[in-house]
Amino acid sequence: MKDAAPQTIYLSDYTPFGWTVESVHLTFRLAPTATRVISKIRFTPTPNAPKQAFFLHGEALTPIRCTIDGQQITPTFTDTGLTCDVPDTAFDWEAEVEISPATNTALEGLYMSNGMYCTQCEAEGFRKITFYPDRPDVMATFTVRIEGAEPVLLSNGNPIAQGDGWAEWHDPWPKPAYLFALVAGDLINHPDRFTTQSGRDVELNIWVRPGDQDKCAFGMEALKKSMKWDEDVYGREYDLDIFNIVAVDDFNMGAMENKGLNVFNSSCVLASPDTSTDLNFERIEAIIAHEYFHNWTGNRITCRDWFQLCLKEGLTVYRDSQFTADMRSEPVKRISDVIQLRARQFREDNGPLAHPVRPESFVEINNFYTATVYEKGAELIGMLKTLVGDDAYYKALDLYFTRHDGDAATIEDWLKVFEDATGRDLTQFKRWYSQAGTPRLSVSEAFTDGTYTVTFRQDTPPTPGQDVKDPRVIPIAVGLLNPNGDEVLPTTILEMTEVEQSFTFEGLATRPVPSILRGFSAPVILHRDSTNEERAFLLAHDTDPFNKWEAGRALARDGLIRMIRNGDAPDTSYLDSLTAVVRDDTLDPAFRALALGLPSQDDLAQTLFDMGNTPDPQAIWQALETLKQATAQHMQDLLPRIYAQYQVDGEYAPDAAQSGARALANAALGLLTRLDGGAQAQKQYDAADNMTQQLAAFACLLSAGNGDAATADFYDQWKHDRLVIDKWFTMQIVQADPDQAAAITRTLTAHPDFSMKNPNRFRATLGALAMNPAGFHHASGAGYAVLADWLIQLDPLNPQTTARMCSSFETWKRYDPDRQALIATQLDRILAQPGLSRDTREMVDRIRK
Ligand code: PHE
Ligand code: ZN
């Protein structure tokens, strides 16, 4: 087979499929290397559809037979599917194909994981199961018969019949093929029930491998809370008799919202205090909610084509963040989300992979499950809500659900609902979906005769393929404080629509201190010439928790930049302000823990680059080390008090209160370790009775260079638990001295527990290296080389995970010519691999440009 030039798909080329699929009947005869799939599909020509040849997708299928209305036919097969002549009227298609799940290492389509069969069809995996119009706008009801020796046989919808070695399922809700799922294995369930608001009794199950059954209770509670929350907040009720969740060890992503049968990466559902950290618990709760919420935003209303991915993902991320804010702390959730947004999405928007929230072309759709589509997509929903107000938002959502239930919809449909519900023109807002790049918002101010004027200017730097940017509508939440710290203007939304725009506030007795972009009301980079006195004032007095935190962050960043650029010493006034926050027991401990966090190495590198400097990863790392050491010394009297005071007694609970206390105490421990060499951390490690405490102490010991005994002990204690061993791999690399990080990574890839076939383990190792930026960007190039070596090895097995991990290289143009040359060498080496996957080629091509 020759390497066909990869084809670019364009949004503007969208045409509907020429046939309607009335129903799909599938029979699976499971066998590891020779599974038979028999499909019976009723096709009806769609009146007035554009004329087209009949084409069904199909990849890596061995056709056994194809018939139309019972007559054997001989289609023309290509690499991507088949074509054949079909009648002008409705007809019955039948095909039998053979596939080999046991050798499917790409984990797309039907594959095996630890002896269990499972599927992953989003985005285009169903075509690896049988011939089908594998596009999200083709929706049909599915009836599935599974024949196999496995004790548990699951598919979408409701069970209709079962016997020895077989089971039948029927899903009454029409769905696109990407939501199809099948699971078969020796599984144990954790059962429960939920009664919906209208009285429907729903059976709930979490299915796991034997041995994992004690790690399901938390996920089940999260599921029930999610079901209740979606009823209470969005009026959305569950719509089948049964809801199944299955945990799978080998999975490319976090989880998948298949109708009635969510499949989860086991790391995103299995939870127990011994093996999961507080952050794991919070993430598991959020992902369970996310997949559950997709039942309405994704499944009942799906996407017309994959360019509309943000329609379901942006909205569902927004919904899960609302849920987490309601279950836990709204400010803490917002601050954490913004940290992630800046770390992942701003980074993407600033580099060669920048793309609009709704892209207009792609080669491989799997490469567009990005922070931009997901997290920036969610920010757009948040901005819409801010602009129209809460009541109008929920009114628009009600209209969306009634108008589009059962549809494969578009961003145009979504915005039209808001226009119709609110009477607002969203033409300008739509630019947020079509323009890539993060707007820079600069601020200038004037005060005369009691009138305060604030002037904003927006600029978005060019991104690949988009040189010119039009002004966007930006909701800017502003509050004003007077110099004694009282709020004189509570949070007010300023709506910016021009390139440059001024807003005035009259009748002020004194020049106010503005608190701008409260709650991070828009995903922009704010440039404001502020003094450190003013930042310290806002850190002490701002009533908006996000901006209070942001003021501390700006102070820290400013001090670090001056340390790096000018060789300054750590700023003692910053340390004084921070100490005051940490000491203030009226503040939420979780907030104080966040305030103790510093801008990341990556954040500082981008900041320096934006200032016209070439970032030196080693110098950035060194400045952070120096500042942490100075912080520890500055707070040496306070730290033992904080550490002791926020120890949690009594039974472990992964709730916001306990995890906030642990986060603060462990932040204190990190600093204390710099003073005592790890004595306290060793005590905590030895006494720990939950993973949060154990892992935090382990990290401290490693960072102090004192981790050898704990490394051996941790492995010994947890070698039976794959998810904990992932942490063991990651922690050694993340906490490594930058000079050692690449070598430690290479050593760990030779460990008997390292495996390329398990994406979690691969990411825990090679993904961890990029989380040690000074190690990854080491001047020797050893970090680049070890990552490239392993990406080259993984690509033939698992293109999707390989391609995603190429983004570790996406910031390369920030660095000096020597580093750029080292990276270019690795990128070119990857591109030169014969048979390189389309996924990886697209990513490396875009990065290399
Ligand atoms: N749709 C999934 C989610 O966001 C993510 C996913 C994409 C999973 C592609 C697998 C494959 O919930
Ligand atoms: Zn999703």
From TrEMBL:
Boundaries of every Peptidase M1 membrane alanine aminopeptidase domain copy: 218-432
Keyword line: Aminopeptidase, Hydrolase, Metal-binding, Metalloprotease, Protease, Zinc
Domain Aminopeptidase N-like N-terminal per the UniProt entry, residue ranges: 97-179
Keyword Transcription listed: no
Ranges of residues in domain Peptidase M1 alanyl aminopeptidase C-terminal: 533-847
Keyword Metal-binding applies: yes
Limits of the Peptidase M1 alanyl aminopeptidase Ig-like fold domain: 437-528
GO molecular function: alanyl aminopeptidase activity; metallopeptidase activity; zinc ion binding
GO biological process: proteolysis
Domain of life of the organism encoding this protein: Bacteria
Catalytic activity, EC: 3.4.11.2
Enzyme class, spelled out: hydrolase
SUPFAM superfamilies reported for this sequence: Leukotriene A4 hydrolase N-terminal domain, Metalloproteases ('zincins'), catalytic domain
Signal peptide: none
Catalytic reactions of this protein: Release of an N-terminal amino acid, Xaa-|-Yaa- from a peptide, amide or arylamide. Xaa is preferably Ala, but may be most amino acids including Pro (slow action). When a terminal hydrophobic residue is followed by a prolyl residue, the two may be released as an intact Xaa-Pro dipeptide
Cofactor(s) recorded in Swiss-Prot or TrEMBL: Zn(2+)
Family of the protein in this entry: Belongs to the peptidase M1 family.
Protein's UniProt name: Aminopeptidase N
Organism expressing this protein natively: Thalassovita litoralis
